[in-house]
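Take a look at the protein record below and flag anything odd:
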Amino acid sequence: MVRVMIKTGLKRGSSLALVVLMASAFSFGFAGALLAQEDHSQHMLTTEQFAELRSKIPLYNEYTDEQIVKSMSSMRNLGGMISDASVIGDVGVLALAHGYTDEGNQQWFDRFSAISKDYPAGYGLGMAMMSSDHIQSAIDGLEAAGAKKILVLRTETGTASSLQRQWEYIFGRRDDSSYLSPPQVESKAELIWGPTPTAHPIMAAIMLDHAKELSSDPSNELVVILGHGPGTKEDNDKELAIMAEHGKFIKEQGGFRDTKFANVQDDAPTEVRAANVEMIRGWIKQAKDQGMDVIVVTNVLTQSGIMGRLERDVEGLDVKFNNTGLMQNPRFADWIKAMVEENLS
C-alpha cells in the first residue's frame, strides 16, 4: 500500500471536512501524488442557502431540506494531479469534469495518461456546488510543477449547462453562480479557457463508431442519440442544435435510414424528464412498427450514472444499446491532444 499525501487546498475559511485516503497507487490509474476529497456530509446549509438552491435548481423544489442535504452529500469533489512529480514544465493542463463512480472516474483518468507524460496535468472532478477547493488544489499543484500557462479543459459534453456556468463563475468569467457561490480560484499562471468537446467533429465520429459496432443493415436502421442534457428548455434547445449536426453526420457517413436525438434532461423537474422519455420511446415504437431496427448511442462520457438510467429508459423496446462512453473510445485522446496543441502552442 502507498500512502497518498493529501493537500487539502482549503483556504479562505472553508468549513468542509476532508477525508484522508489510503490507497494503492494503481487503484487510481494515475500517477498523481496529490489528491483532495471534500466531504459535504458535515456541511450545514442555512435557510437562505436552501432557498438559493431551490431558486437555481428547479428539481430541488420537489425536495425536502433533508433530501437536498442527502443529494449534496452524495456529490464528491476530487482534485489533484494526474501527472507524477517528475513531469515539470511551464505549460500545464487542468482537466475538469462532472465526476462519476469510481469506475467512471478510472475511465476518465485513462484518457489523460498520454498527455500527462508530456505536460503537468491536474484535475478537478465534481460539480463544485458548495466549494472550489478541489480545483484550487489542482491549480496549486500545477503551479508547483512550474506551470506559467494553464489550459482549462472542460471535458463535459454540454456548453449550455448549469455546471459550465458554475465553472465560469469559479474562474471569474461571470458574476453569478449556478448553485451556491464558493470562492473564485486564484492563480499566478495565465489561465486559458479551452473549448468543450460538445460540438467537435470527433464526438460525432465516436458516436458513429459506436453505432457501426451494432449495425447490420444501416439502410433499415434508426440511430437514436441520447444525452443527459441541461435543465431548462432554453439551454436544451442549444444542445439539441449541436446534436442535430452530429445526427446529420452519422446518418450521412453511416448510411443509416434515419437518426433522431434527444436529451432526457436528467436534472429537470420530474414531469419534464418523463415527457422526454415518453417522446423517445414513441420514436422507437414507431420505427419498430415500420420494420426498422433501432440502435441507441449516447454522448455520455463514461459508463456510470446517467448511462445506466438512459439504458433503463428504453428497456423493453428491443433496441441495440451501446453503453460505451465517449471517453472509452481512443479518438477522445485525439481530441485532448488536439486541444492541448491548438491552445498551448
Q: What stands out?
A: The chain has a mean pLDDT of 88. The longest strand covers residues 91-97. The CA atoms of residues 143 and 313 lie 44 Å apart. The radius of gyration is 20 Å.
